[in-house]
Amino acid sequence: MIERDQKEMIARVKQRPQLGDIIRLIKHKYKAQATTAAEQKDIRTYLTPEEKVFLSIGVKSIDLGRVCVFSKVQRSLNFANDLQISVSATVMILIQELHQSASKSQIVSPNGMAGIDIVFCSDIAQQFVGQILIQVNGSIVFAVPIRAEVIPISFELIQYQISVSYPPSFNGRAVPMIIYFQNPSNNPAEFEWE
């Protein structure tokens, strides 16, 4: 028979956002430092391998796909604490392309879920492979690989041939014409026409 506390925990877990949803950013952030005596005691607790089973992240890896140079791509890495104690979750980012990500600690309450904002921006075209580490109560628990194909900003002319013909009664200096361009990238492409 399931006890009342376990039923309440299951109800809270069902109400929280989906753990694997990396597109929707979780706006609620937990406080960065423990403020109560109980929280301070909890975050100093060494977690055994059996207890670490009750910690989870939404995805095992993040593939950003094709992104343009200088564009910012945001994802949310969700961290769930299904323990009965608060934990301190800290993201460790050692890569320049991810330095805009939130790396503050969060004191995640029992049965709580924290959203960790991941922001990727690269200033060179490359096949990016990196990782972020998640430290819980002082020990590294998760390593999440991140991949992206960073491509240059492209700007394409849809019509490759432009033919200009003048009507027989034409006396003007200019002919109006519509030319279409396409920007298949995820970043604005500024241009000038002369």
TrEMBL record:
Domain of life: Eukaryota
Gene3D superfamilies attached to this UniProt entry: Immunoglobulins
InterPro entries: Ig-like_fold
PANTHER family given in the database record: CILIA- AND FLAGELLA-ASSOCIATED PROTEIN 47
GO BP terms, alphabetized: cilium assembly
Protein name per Swiss-Prot or TrEMBL: Uncharacterized protein
Cellular component GO terms, alphabetical: cilium
